[in-house]
Amino acid sequence: MRPIIAMLLSMAFTMADARSIAPVGVLHDVAFDQYSSLSSVGELRARLFSPLTVRRLGATSSPQAQTIDLAREHFDLYVPKRTPQTGYGVLVFIPPWDNAVVPPQWIDALDRHGLIFVSAAKSGNDANVMERREPLALLAAYNVQKKYPVDTSRIYVGGFSGGSRVAERLALAYADLFRGALLNAGSDPIGTHEIPLPATDRFERFQTSSRLVYFTGKDDAHHLDMDRRSQDSMRAWCVFDLASVVVPWSGHETPGAAAFGRALDALDEHQPADPEKLAACRVRYTSELKDDIDQTRALMLKGNRAESTSRLLKIDARFGGLAAPYFDSAN
Asked: Which residues have C-beta within 8 Å of that of residue 262, sequence separation ≥ 6?
């Protein structure tokens, strides 16, 4: 009996350690083959569009379809040689350029933080956001988890310039996957038609579990102003776990080793929101939403179709998924 037990134990340990023998270091042109429901057409629509936009688009004939053919895609990775005791962290990076590149000056900081870096090819600013950039980032996160032991509390999304703005959208819509975002010289206000708020449960998770680091050159005035407007919007919507890393003597450019290291330090310094402050903030916007809905219903009852429709569209743009239960009850 003992040899059989020993053999079974050996098999179990071999299966548990299978991911630990995956290749490490800088890896070019990596192919993935695992799909996730998170990157399906239906899921992307449901999470990234406002409720009325989803209704206007109508039901898709194949909600589980994927817009990405992984057999045609390639990714670049950097995997630290030492596996952290709790598993690797992951930084999914969305570039503005077309090539998948691991910036060599960032490797020491990735080693220090035990972070796997992964970036997709053909995911630059010219690529379609909904059909390529967002699903590629989601599939990168999913496949890295399949190949390596990962600490799910340290899965982050980030990007540079236009890629950073896409990363912000994903961090907001997929707070159940990404626990923070590194926004390098690119950000936007939330609660708009372009970046609608998610459903209440996901948004509350974003408020409590996501860390956002704004990371921009001191001489990049335009993007520093974008950061300020984005941060003001976050705080107005009760998102308080924010940090800003301003890089001295730097414009709109890929940051160096020291600055990148400081940004990763900030990303790992999660600061839980004060419960009373968060609760009071949520009461405020919930009350504002209810007032807007009540006023719109009053206009509907008076037969003022044009004005009530206009107000509904504004509610949809501002409150996004938070307003979905009210829209559903109106049917």
From this structure: 245
Query: Can you give the pTM of this predicted structure?
Result: 0.92
* 16 burial via Cβ count (<10 Å: 0-12, 13-18, 19+): exposed
The tokens describing 116, both together, are 């796997």
Kindly report the backbone phi and psi dihedral angles of residue 180, in degrees, each rounded to the nearest multiple of 5, phi listed first. 175, 170
Over the stretch 248-290, which tens digit does the pLDDT of each residue have? 999 999 899 999 999 999 999 999 999 999 999 999 999 999 9
Which of the 8 DSSP states describes residue 245? E
Note whether 168 and 187 are within 8 A (CB).
yes
Q: How far is CA 198 from CA 61, 130, 170, 268, 322, in A?
A: 23, 16, 11, 24, 7
Exposed/middle/buried for residue 296 (C-beta within 10 Å: 0-12, 13-18, 19+): buried
Kindly list the strands in the beta sheet with 242-247, ordered across the sheet, starting from the edge strand earlier in the chain. 25-30, 75-79, 115-120, 88-94, 150-160, 180-184, 211-217, 242-247
Q: Which residue carries 């992951």 as its tokens? A: 90
| Distance (Å) of CA 322 to CA 51, 157, 165 | 9, 24, 22
CA angle, 284 then 183 then 149, to 5°: 105
What does the buried/exposed string (b/e) look like for 119-156 if buried means 16 or more CB atoms within 10 Å of the residue's CB? bbbebbbebebeebbbbbbbbbbbbbbebbbbbeebbb
Q: Which two tokens stand for residue 152?
A: 């799910």
Q: Alpha-carbon distance 123 to 134, whole Å?
A: 9
Q: How far is CA 315 from CA 45, 193, 238, 247, in A?
A: 19, 10, 18, 38
